[in-house]
Design a protein that fits this description.
The complex is a heterodimer of chains A (173) and B (160).
Chain A: H1 2-22, H2 27-31, H3 33-36, E1 42-47, H4 48-53, H5 68-79, E2 80-88, H6 92-102, E3 108-115, E4 121-128, E5 135-143, E6 148-157, H7 159-172
Chain B: H1 3-14, H2 20-31, H3 41-52, H4 72-94, H5 118-159
Helix pairs in contact in B: 1-2, 2-3
Classes of the chains: A alpha+beta (173), B mainly alpha (160).
């Protein structure tokens, strides 16, 4: 009986363990792993550890004694579990079209699509936890005649905050 | 019939030289068990079998098709299972392959691509956030333009 339980319990728990393991897997791991090995792409990864170290660097935006906004930004950055960036200048529009066709829209909800006159297209997608509704991944696909960019933020993300901090950093630029 | 005479007839039988009358005599001899000499007992089964004149059908039984009737419940269940299997097969065959189905998940060693320092990581994050801000901005502008167009169109309609 004990042996049976030892076999059955892991079997029942396996799907949950698998789900927990896949929660931190980005769209890049799922759909675009072949781009990572492609020499035409430049790839950068920012780990959770690097995000936690950012408060120590001397950048005006991150000086916690400057104002409350900076403190918020530091806290927010610390909550990000990973950022992956893939970029290429090689046949960018083709890659953009291919990337769009690969993403499962049942898992990734299109938040916004922006089409600009210069032929630049951007799609903003989010993946949410089906139970809690929390945003787990923010995915940005951008294709123009000059470049194709794939951005993936992983973590417990709040869209209002990310938009606010994005605007703050952009205005400080 | 004497034993010697029976033996001669048995030899003739195996040489296929017996007449129908000889064979009848052999069968008659072996059918009377009490008369059968013990030395001839090994041949007894054969000639008694021939005497009975019946083929042993027990060996053929498995080859005779069964006449059992299959109940209507079993037939319905079999038909339902078959229909279900056909439905599943057709569904998986005709359903267009989901274009978005991911290929097998490949583990990527992201540490190979990790930013070299917190400063570089911040620059990358900063650029990424600026990109996000641009999209949000552009989207808001587009929404404002669209709202304005709708407002103008509504005003024109009201003016008309």
């Amino acid at each position: 009986m004990k042996k049976l339980l030892h076999t059955l319990i892991p079997l029942f728990l396996w799907p949950f363990l698998l789900q927990a393991q896949t929660a931190n897997i980005s769209a890049i791991d799922t759909y675009f792993s072949h781009y990572v090995d492609d020499e035409r792409f430049s790839v950068v990864y920012v780990s959770a550890k690097l995000f936690s170290l950012m408060k120590n660097i001397s950048v005006p935006e991150l000086q916690s004694d400057e104002n409350a906004d900076n403190n918020d930004l530091i806290r927010y950055l610390e909550g990000i579990e990973g950022l992956r960036v893939l970029r290429t200048n090689d046949t960018p529009l083709q890659f953009y079209a291919e990337a769009k066709s690969k993403i499962d829209t049942k898992l990734y909800e299109i938040l916004m699509t922006v089409r600009e006159k210069a032929g630049k297209n951007t799609e903003f997608l989010i993946k949410s936890d089906q139970k809690t509704g929390k945003v787990q991944e923010l995915l940005l696909l951008s294709g123009s005649p000059d470049e194709f960019v794939l951005l993936s933020f992983i973590g417990n993300l709040n869209l209002d905050d990310i938009s606010r901090f994005a605007k703050k950093i952009s205005s400080d630029n | 019939m004497k034993k010697e005479e029976v033996l001669i007839l048995i030899h003739k039988y195996f040489e296929a030289e017996t007449s129908l009358d000889d064979e009848r005599r052999l069968k008659g001899y072996f059918s009377r068990r009490e008369e059968t000499a013990p030395e001839l007992e090994p041949y007894a089964d054969l000639f008694r079998y021939l005497h009975n004149g019946q083929a042993d059908t027990t060996l053929l039984q498995p080859m005779i098709p069964s006449q059992r009737r299959i109940s209507w419940q079993a037939q319905t269940a079999a038909a339902a299972i078959l229909a279900l299997l056909i439905a599943i097969a057709s569904w998986s065959y005709f359903l267009p392959k989901a274009k978005n189905q991911p290929a097998t998940l490949t583990r990527i060693d992201w540490t190979k691509y990790e930013a070299a320092s917190a400063e570089t990581a911040y620059q990358v994050t900063r650029e990424a956030l600026i990109r996000v801000a641009q999209v949000v901005d552009q989207s808001e502008q587009n929404a404002q333009i669209a709202a304005e167009r709708i407002r103008n169109a509504t005003e024109m309609l009201e003016f008309d």
